Amino acid sequence: MAVTCMKIEYRRLSPQEFSLLAPDLVSIYLRAMDYPANIANSRINSWRRDIFHPGFSAIIAVVGDTIIGVAYGFLGHRGYWWDNHLRAFLEQAGTTAEHHEKLASYVELAELHVLPQMQGHGVGKHLLTQLAWNLPADYLLLSTPEVAGEANRAFGLYRSLGFRDVARHVHYPGDRRDYAILAAPLPLPGTETQ
User: What is the mean pLDDT for each group of 10 consecutive residues in the chain (194 residues)?
Assistant: First the structure.
């Protein structure tokens, strides 16, 4: 079925709904990121812990009864795993005043994933702009796998919404890939009047 013929609904989830749906949401993440199925349980547990972070917000894209995409995030804070790794990397690379400004007030886009067969049709952009609406911070930060020449849909989406480099070639323990850390000022373009 062509994506243009499908009715896609976007639903904001309560933390409780997100926790209940975590196995299905992590399945989308595994497929989108091409990760092995044996990490599913650890990711489900991690995602369920994330609902307790201040500012937690989640949204899904649904066609009929099938979830085709997910985005979630929360307020960035010292002491969180991702924040700790980012600060350590920036300290080693040379933290700037601009870095300090972004780290002082940001929401971490923890995850944004769309089933591979549904990518390229605006689902990710809609998830991201819906999630970003009215966030209680000055910046939205995220990490995305490095790709030669930024030649993939993720980079195209992020660049189109004003995301710029914070750090490049960041390595996380347990992952074979390098990541780019990107940030955009809030509100994102097109979300000011939602």
Answer: 73 98 98 94 97 97 97 94 90 87 95 95 95 94 95 94 95 88 92 57
Name 24's Cβ contacts closer than 8 Å, sequence gap at least 6.
67
Residue 158 falls in the annotated catalytic set: yes
Q: CA-CA distance, 104 to 138, in Å (whole number)?
A: 9
Indicate the length of the chain as a whole number. Answer: 194
Q: At 172, give phi and psi (nearest 5°).
A: -105, 140
User: 141-179 pLDDT, tens per residue?
Assistant: 999 999 999 999 999 999 999 999 999 999 988 888 899
For residues 103 and 85, the answer to whether their CB atoms sit within 8 Å is no
Catalytic residue among 29, 139, 158, 179: 158
Q: What was the pLDDT predicted at 175?
A: 82
Tokens of 141: 């930060």
